[in-house]
Amino acid sequence: MVVPSWRPAAAGAAALAVAALLAPPAHARTPAPPPSACGAPVNRQLGDVAVTMQLCPDWAPAGRIPVHSGTRPAGAKVVGWIDPAGDGWYECGMRGDPYRGIPGAVSRWWAAAMADNGRWGYVSQLYLQGGREGDPEQSLRRC
After folding, report:
1. Which residues form the signal peptide (predicted)?
2. Fewest C-beta in 10 Å: which of 24, 83, 92, 112?
């Protein structure tokens, strides 16, 4: 599991301790490029429309990811939810207003997505595992 860099230090420290126990000796390690959080873009047929989307690992501390009607959370309504079990499909990313829906974290980056109820909207990229607080998910294509 990828732990976002802005998550509580205790979670990061625990993950590092486990990784240190399971890691091979230093002389056996070879540097690897950082993994791409989101998969390659693919065309998905959604009703009568083909949409280019990417499968991205996501997570949610409350067990569900809110999908907003816009990228301005002050005026946007939650139009649906995404179950974070498994990876989710996201269309593209864009900059919007700051989102503070996760205590202690903020990001201006959003991802276009379809909620589990079939409604389209926007998800804060704080819910994508590959990004860092305040930065866009680099492997998600831009809108």
Report:
1. 1-28
2. 24
